[in-house]
Amino acid sequence: MKAVLYICHGSRSAEGQKEAVAFVERLSSSISIPIQHICFLELCEPNIVAGVERCVHDGATTIYAIPLLLLSANHAKRDIPYELEKAKKMFPSVTITYGKPFGVQRLIVSAISKTIEHADAIMLVGRGSSDIDAQADFKQIAHLLQQETNIPVYPCYLAAASPSFSDVVTSLAKTAKHRRVAVVPYILFFGQLLDYIHETLQAQQTSDVSFTLYPPIRTYDVLDRLVEQQVKEWR
Q1: What residues form the membrane-spanning segments (predicted)?
Q2: Domains (range + CATH), the chain
Q3: 93-127 in b/e burial notation, b at 16+ Cβ within 10 A?
């Protein structure tokens, strides 16, 4: 019997956990696979091995493990495969196939561009990673978004890479080069990041520059279609 295991990053925030569960419930409602479960890489339960165990307990003999991550960085390349290898050793008779993060997707870029209103600049805010491939992908997404909207896009990060979110906000506020800045968090779930982003933007609002915070990427229905396509290709 087939199963889909959705792997989320995990969050210390109860709100972030609720967002992840609600997101997976939305995705799973359109996937015609008999067994579907959620698990987390860190900070939340069940962990990945426990998630596999739940699938097996429900009768799964073949599991498709989908990392619900926007970009392919160290978590996708190293941490999740390591946990799945542990699960394979525990259940050698079960076939576990590893999926892929969303990656650079024009469909996601197009969905974002359609939501941008009354802006003369866009801040594209990533969680951040030291992985050079993830940084290159993020820059490509920013480039595609600028092409799509014909609006200047400023990519930045909340951690682990530069330029930082706070530095770009401060710079845009001081120079007043743009009056209406759309702030797009290229993040699946806000969690504790929401408060930090919101407070930083509020502190930098001026009579000359207005920052408008947009919702996280999980709100876009295109993600459902991309997951459906992954599952369809696997089957």
Answers
A1: none
A2: 1-100 (3.40.50.1400), 104-217 (3.40.50.1400)
A3: ebebebbebbbbbeebbebbbeebeebebbbbbbb
- In which band, very low, low, confident or very high, does the pLDDT at 156 lie, cut at 50, 70 and 90? very high
Asked if pLDDT for residue 191 goes beyond 80, the answer is no
Contact in structure between 180 and 212 (CB atoms under 8 Å): yes
pLDDT value for 159: 87
Radius of gyration from C-alpha coordinates of the chain:
19
| CA 151-154-159 angle, 5° bins | 155
Structure tokens at 217: 């990427």
CA gap 3, 55 in Å, rounded:
6
Mean pLDDT of the residues in the chain: 91
> What is the pTM (predicted TM-score) of this model?
0.90
- Please give the helix or strand (H or E) that residue 8 lies within, else none: strand 2-8
CA distances to 23, 123, 186, 189, 194 from 158, rounded to whole Å, are 22, 12, 10, 14, 11
